[in-house]
Amino acid sequence: MHNFRSFDIFVLLTTSLFLYGCGGGGSDGGVNVTPDIDGFKVQQDLHVFDYVYGGSDFSVTHVVAYSNENSQQRLTEPHMLFSSSARSTISYYFDTLNNQEITIALLDRNTQLVKASTQIIADAEQPYWVFAFGDSNTNNYSLYTVQRPVVTQSEQTVPVFVIDASTPSQNTASDLYLNGTQIIQGLEGKTLSQPLTVPKYAGRLTLELKREGQPSIQCLNIQSTNYQAIDNTYVNWEESAWLIVFSPDSHCHMKPINWQ
User: Fold this and answer.
1) Model confidence over 195-248: pLDDT tens digits?
2) Which run of H or of E encompasses 164?
3) Are 49 and 132 within 8 A, CB to CB?
4) Its domain of life (predicted)?
5) Residue range 152-156: average pLDDT?
């Protein structure tokens, strides 16, 4: 469990504005299946985020998904490093109502060998985020799935989610600081944080990730720049919710996630 400490106006932590899902699984109920001549099918909403480091600006892996009656459905196309896929809704077919697992696999782009895999329970009413983590230099890879958080808009604050993927081979906990004040203690590696709600119009904001025995990683002036979204439009800080990922190249990467 993360331990949150109180601090001044720069950031407010709240869970009342969010419905936050647990990772790695699906809903027990509400599976929306439609009888089909080939079996049962579920339209599953998935969004993939690629944080597999390959030593250059180009991605070295791609992500596929399949059911027990589906061939592989590619969720990512060739893309730049630390990019994200478009949100995709694909129909997955099953031969029985009682076994509706979707397998998600991370493949080496060149060899097509499986580097990591995981399963979710198909649920048409529950979108998922899928995160691919890894470093080809250490040959360490993993997949992390989490039910997509539901974000409620606010006139005063900006929702921010954080992931520490800076060390793919470890799940060592880190501490997160905002303007020098610790706001999260013990952020587990490669896991989505609880939501932070940051004032829209606060002054200069800097996030810093610290781990014992490791150099710190900073996100400087996180609210002062426009950020390019998937459709090549630009999103202002105060207009969106945000995902901040600390990656193996010792940088932080911000993505607007106000598309739901």
Assistant:
1) 998 888 877 888 999 988 788 888 887 776 556 555 567 788 888 888 899 988
2) strand 157-164
3) yes
4) Bacteria
5) 84
